[in-house]
Design brief:
- With 176 residues, the protein is mainly beta.
- The chain has a domain of 119 residues: Sandwich (Jelly Rolls).
- It is built from two helices and 13 strands.
- The chain has a six-stranded antiparallel sheet, with no helix packed on it.
- It is globular, with a radius of gyration of 16 Å.
- 31% of the residues are buried.
- The mean pLDDT is 96.
Length: 176
């Protein structure tokens, strides 16, 4: 795996090292020792899959508050998405900044999302599948979010009229 630091402190784009032959390829998507060598969280509590039937579906911007703050490792296994993270750590140099990247089944890249970041995505194709590993168990009483189009962050989404749940549509603006 190749770890590429993003503009947001502690967040990484991860490119896979494919072992290819006439049958296809094999790639490691997680290795505890490689993550530890990078100083990244290597403890995983659960893995989730998100199927999104329609292009333009937006989910986010979600995070969990302490003591259940979570690290995520996001990987698109089918289709394509625009993946977005926001640094919500007040003491960070990249506080209130966002990073967006296209993840798809062709580039096979992953996004490492540190604790203290909100995460969301918008699908770029129908039938997009996202697989993500998480460092903490889901704790609904600590689930939080900020509005996907909050002007504080100025996220430039691919589609301005997303398919979005009522819950996500009603997330609050961020208060600094």
């Amino acid at each position: 795996m190749k770890f590429i630091e993003t503009d947001l402190t502690g967040a990484y784009l991860i490119e896979l090292d494919l072992k290819e032959d006439e049958r296809g390829f094999l790639a490691r998507t997680f290795c505890r020792s490689e993550f530890e060598k990078q100083g990244l969280e290597s403890r995983l509590a659960q893995a989730n899959i998100s199927f999104n039937a329609r292009r333009g579906t937006l989910r986010g911007m979600h995070y969990q508050a302490q003591p259940f703050a979570e690290v995520k490792l996001v990987h698109c296994v089918q289709g394509a998405l625009y993946d977005v993270i926001i640094d919500l750590r007040p003491d960070s140099q990249s506080y209130c900044c966002y990073y967006g990247v296209k993840l798809n089944a062709e580039n096979r890249s992953m996004l490492y999302v540190p604790e203290g970041f909100a995460h969301g995505f918008q699908t770029l194709e129908d039938n997009t599948v996202i697989y993500y590993m998480i460092s903490e168990f889901y704790a609904p009483q600590y689930a939080r979010g900020v509005r996907w189009n909050d002007p504080v962050f100025g996220i430039s989404w691919p589609f301005s009229d997303p398919i979005i749940s009522e819950r996500d549509r009603q997330l609050p603006d961020y208060e600094r």
